[in-house]
Amino acid sequence: MRPRGGLGPGPVWAQRVRQLEQRARTQEERIIALETENAALHLKLAAYQGWAGRSVNEILQLYSTHGQQQKLQRSSLVTHLHEAIKRLKQDMKSLHSFALELSKDFQRQYKACLYQILTAVQGIQLQNEAMQMFQMKAFDLEQSLQEVTGRYEREKQRRRALHNSLVELRGNIRVHCRIRPSLPFDHAAGHSVSQERHRNSLENVAYAIDDETVLVKCSRPGHAPINKTFQFERVYNATESQDTVFADVAPLLTSLLDGYNVCIMAYGQTGSGKTYTMLGPQLEENLAFVNEDESELGIIPRATQELFRLISEKPAGSYWVEVSVVEVYNNEVFDLLAKDSCGKVFGIKRDVVTTREGKSDVPLLTYETVANASEFLHLVIKGLQLRVRHPTLVHAHSSRSHLVVTLTITTIVSGDNFGTSWEDEQINQRLNKEVSCSYPQKRDSRSTSSSRASSPAQLEAAEKLKQVKTRLQLVDLAGSECVGMSGVTGAALRETSCINRSLSALADVLGAIAEQRSHVPYRNSKLTHLLQDSVGGDAKLLVMLCISPSQKYLTESMQSLGFGTRARQVQRGQIKKRNLPVLSKTK
Ligand code: ADP
Ligand code: MG
């Protein structure tokens, strides 16, 4: 169709056509461009698709290789495992065989052990039987040993009793020897002593080899060796207690109440244990001791306890006990119980005289009546205090003086009770000389006694009664050491020479009695004069030798042992007994 109007339709259309054609061309160009772009894109797509294809292939390849690798790995693991299993199986096999071997071996060994055990058990059974046999034998032996020991002990006791009777019959002096333990003060060295000599001096040289023998064994350079034994009635070693020592002394106290005089005397050098044995440790210095340890008490306090115990078994009032305490210092006798007008105790010098009957006596000596052991101890302690404080005593050392504690036991005997035989008559005659006819005779107005009878009836009967006195003398001698005179002067020299003189006088007296000389020199010293009746008379005399064990004191120990040996040999004739009736509590 053609356009209408001024320009006619042709040009418009033509323009329009051109426009359209233009547009068409533009469109076409665009289409071409797009197609080109499309193609390019196609190309790109194709390229990409190619890449993608390749990538897929690669991935697939990778997958396959990965798969293969995994397969490979798996298969190698499996083979490894297989191999390991194989090896394990092999190991198992070898282990199994080893275990088999082992169990076989074990079985073998087990059998062998079982066999051994069985033989051992059999052996043990056999041994058990043998052991039982041995046990039975041992039991039998033990029993027979006990029997033998018992018999031995009984025989020993019998032998001792026989020996004691023999000693008594012969009038021998009993000698016991006590070896004290080594003590710290033994170790103090002297100034001039060399180390070597000091060491040697500490060695023990005196031993108790049994309960009757002392052995002194010593070899010193420059001296002849010593190997000597000494026999005594009893020997105590260092471990033996005060109890044991007293047990052997106690029977003498029974004799005392049976009418015998008794004297117990400690002999030995200073420090050898005389005071310890007689009184106990430190009794003199420390008076509190007495109550502290009863087991340490010495012979004097124990003897008194025992004496009062024995008296307590007798009828009341039939015995009473008086005490005197005397010190012999520088050949003078001091009465340690003497009192002044105010009642104060002080040591007074006394004399020793010989009575018409030939007995020794100390006129004016203080006798205190005591009713029990503690009263006695109280008195002795008072006396001992005085001994220490004695004005003339230069050395406070107790061993510078001899101490004599005397207990006089007076027994009331009715005239009817005296024996009637000729022998009794003889003794009565002898006794009557020393028996006073009034009862009770009080020697000291201050003394009191609960054991004394005092009723009028008894006093009336006094005429008929007689008193028999027996005496217990307890002596702690001064140290027996022979101190070298050089370097000792003045009072010490006098003391030492007095001690030496009195102890050698004692030895002389014993010598004279042993040789049965007509004259016994009792009066050569106050000590022997005072102890005359005990040493030479009819007392049962026990000398307690005290010995220090160490070499340091060898000379003194040998001297003491020699003294004891000589004392033992003294024969004084049969010990006489005062004629006492047998008193019993029921009487
Ligand atoms: P002495 O009186 O002979 O000079 P002592 O009796 O004073 O000697 O003894 C000297 C020291 O030895 C004291 O300290 C005493 O206690 C001690 N002593 C003596 N004998 C014994 C003993 N058997 N056991 C223990 N100590 C003892
Ligand atoms: Mg002493």
SSE arrangement:
Blueprint: H1 9-170, E1 174-179, H2 195-202, E2 206-210, E3 213-218, E4 226-231, E5 234-236, H3 242-257, E6 261-267, H4 274-278, H5 289-292, H6 299-312, E7 319-329, E8 332-335, E9 348-350, E10 353-354, E11 360-361, E12 368-370, H7 373-388, E13 402-414, H8 422-434, H9 456-461, E14 465-476, H10 490-514, H11 526-530, H12 532-535, E15 539-547, H13 554-569
Parallel strand pairs: 1-5, 1-15, 6-14, 6-15
Antiparallel strand pairs: 2-3, 3-4, 7-8, 7-12, 7-13, 8-9, 10-11, 13-14
Bound molecules: adenosine-5'-diphosphate (ADP) and magnesium ion.
Magnesium ion binds next to helix 4.
Account of the 3D structure:
This protein is an alpha/beta fold and 587 residues long. The chain is 50% helix and 16% strand. The chain is built from 13 helices and 15 strands. β7 (319-329) and β8 (332-335) form a beta hairpin. It is elongated, with a radius of gyration of 61 Å. The model is unreliable at 1-5, 391-398 and 417-454 (pLDDT under 50). It binds adenosine-5'-diphosphate and magnesium ion (MG). Belongs to the TRAFAC class myosin-kinesin ATPase superfamily. Kinesin family.
